[in-house]
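Q: what does this look like with adenosine monophosphate bound?
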Amino acid sequence: MSVLIVGSIALDDVKTPVEERFDLLGGSASYASVAAGYFSPVNLVAIVGEDFPASHWEFLQGRGINLEGVQRATGKTFRWSGEYLWDMNTRETRSVALNVFENFSPSVPDHYRSSDFVLLANIAPDMQLKVLQQMEKPRFVIADTMDLWINIAQPALLKLLKCVDMLILNDSEARELTKETSLIKAGKKIQSLGPRFVALKKGEHGCLLFGEDEFFSCPAYPLEDIHDPTGAGDTFAGGLTGFLASRGKDKVDFASLKTAVVVGSVLASYNVEAFSLERLRRVEKKDILSRFAEFQDLARFDASLP
Ligand code: AMP
């Protein structure tokens, strides 16, 4: 089962307390596509400018990602720059240059339109909606978002929520969107806005999955060294969607989603071990399986009280 992914492709400058790197391959769609590609064929819809390096294009292509839906426009690629504080969790956006994104009107190639699994990776909600309107009858639609859209495009985001099966966002964004301090109340409130499933990411503390009448708390992998948290959320979303699609359209249930959340967490934990997509370049399927087994041990709890 293939996955349709729409999102940003970017050139990022990233500063951490120990290192600063420039012109890195970034963007929500880059991370999400590479992560999803471990499990399912990926059809990508995005835009790059004339300055987008051929080596990045070849890397994405080399991962088997179908780039037919990626427009190459006149102008510069979207650029983002961020800085992490000493806790490697708090991030300040230093600059954003929309460039070719400013006039991006996503167009889904005809033969992508029948995809059953759609990941609307983080971009403006009206662009996410535009993609969804071009799809025939997707079985499962997952959307990711960020604080920016909660602040400046909330009406479009609320419209989008009515059309998706699952929303992924982080804890502070969930609180911002719902004005609830309790994440449990926030998750349920988001479900009342449309999506049947909600995944709330808590950074180094794992993730909460809300189902119709079920709930799952996924631990985080205890990583000692984080080099660059950029793209962790996008990698999580891509891994989750790619895995779910690989199970087939008749197996979208809470049990599959629980496994998908763990798979997403495994991929995100690898991603933060190096800048940009450098770590995922070297991660193989066997590495994912081995860390997945470690996750199972982390969550297993079979002691009993006397
Ligand atoms: P994350 O760390 O999961 O929040 O994702 C970081 C990635 O998102 C970076 O590679 C950025 O290029 C990309 N990004 C940042 N801001 C935006 C935005 N407004 N729209 C789309 N992508 C963005």
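The chain has a mean pLDDT of 96. The radius of gyration is 18 Å.
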